[in-house]
Amino acid sequence: MNHYSWIYVGDAGHSHKVGLYHSSKSGHVLIYVGRKVVTIDFRVFESKKYTFFIEDELVRVCLERKGDEMYYTFEIDKTADTPRNRARRIIERKYLRQFLVALSVFVGLVLFAALVLPSFSEKSELSRAEELLVKEGKETIARITGSPEENSSVLKYQFIQGNDIITGQLDRAEIAKLSPMPVINGDEFVVLYVPSKPEINTLYLNRPTEKQISRFMERAVEKHLKLHPDAAPEEVSCIVGVAFLLGGLDGLADFFYQDLNPAMNPAHNSSSFGKLTSSLPFRKKVEKDCGQ
Q1: Is 197 helix (H, G, I), strand (E, B) or coil?
Q2: The whole model's pTM is what?
Q3: Which CATH architecture describes the domain 2-76?
Q4: Which among 36, 156, 202, 271 could bridge 146 via Cys, Cβ 3.0 to 4.6 Å?
């Protein structure tokens, strides 16, 4: 299951997370903005484009087939004839000259700072680490070796780099922000690291491996069966699969935490579970795929 996400920031400063799930086996595609599903498509194995609005901005998610690989991009359509683009062109023509003057001044200041004042541009350790990750970072799989239940302050993980085992840790406060599902020993996620300095790395709890996604789905099924022992396991597996297709990891978390009240888990609880399972897209998909 391929998963990509982008952040679109509107004029008012509001951030919109745009995400895409694309199954390499079934070809099914799901695109969402925030918690809203905007596009569902099936059996997509060739290049295709999906266009939709975020606020008044026309945007596009592109799937491009190159040989055996599929590439995914997010674009803002600045050429289509929309009210936003017409206003944009007027502004661009009006202020082009002022922009070029300001740009020249800015470039001059940057060159001055880079060539004349290098001794005053010392970077912080965090900035240097982030820069190395951007320039040299490579991805691999990390495995959780210490769950939050065992350590109240950090989550420990390990990954292999060459012949070495690299150990890292993540503050517990960040876990709930990055992974809606509970994380335990043995879980696997993508980690970005610097090969020359592997101690510089970042664990992405929001990017589980396909194997880990299956584990999360199994946990959601087990939890639902525990709360509803009369339910048929095959039907529950199908329904949970629909929850993931429409809601991603958030959909699985709605099933897993369905017995909690909003005070215990504001993001995923009995209320969010009810909203998901009563939504029209969910009910139609369950009826089609699961025979209910």
Answers
A1: strand
A2: 0.55
A3: Beta Barrel (2.40)
A4: 156
What per-residue confidence (pLDDT) applies to 196? Answer: 92
Residue with tokens 């504001």: 266
Q: CB of 16 within 8 A of CB of 54?
A: yes
Say how far residue 258 (Cα) sits from the centre of its chain.
Answer: 23
Report residue 215 as tokens.
């584990």
DSSP class of residue 260 equals S
**Domain map of the chain by residue range?**
2-76, 83-119, 127-208, 220-290
Closest CA to 55 of 19, 15, 90, 6: 15
Distance, CA of 95 to CA of 37 (rounded, Å):
37
Among candidate residues 217, 260, 265, the one with its CA nearest the CA of residue 239: 217
140 in Cβ contact with 191 (< 8 Å): yes
The residue type at 81: D
Local mean pLDDT, 10-residue blocks, the chain (292 residues): 91 89 94 95 95 93 94 93 87 78 81 60 69 91 76 82 91 81 92 93 92 95 95 94 94 96 94 95 93 74
